[in-house]
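Changelog-adjacent note: as of this version, every example in the card shows the full chain rather than a window. The one below runs 108 residues end to end.
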Amino acid sequence: MMKAKEQLKVNLDKEVESIQFTKHQEVLEQVYPTTWKQKLHKLWNKEISIPLIPVSTVFALMVIAIGYVEINTSEKINNPNQEKVIIQVAGNYYWKDEFERALLKNEN
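Full-length structure tokens:
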């Protein structure tokens, strides 16, 4: 086993001996930024991993909560048990509660 590893290392060393890495300084500047511009560049290029399951679960719960609130309030407004009375004033028809609300608003 060790002999196979050593043989692979020798073969790899022979293959890559002609390759020279010439950008040592650029890599060091990116890894260890010194100026505020380099630090900002490093922060801007930082990779962020966002877990899909928790984020999608929170999003789904928010959609459900907002939908529940909207449905719940619309049920209160459009409650079929609440009977509205239509009245006739000066040849026009109005909902009684809305007409009374408008009268109170105009009186004040």
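Structural remarks: Strands lie at 86-89, 92-95.
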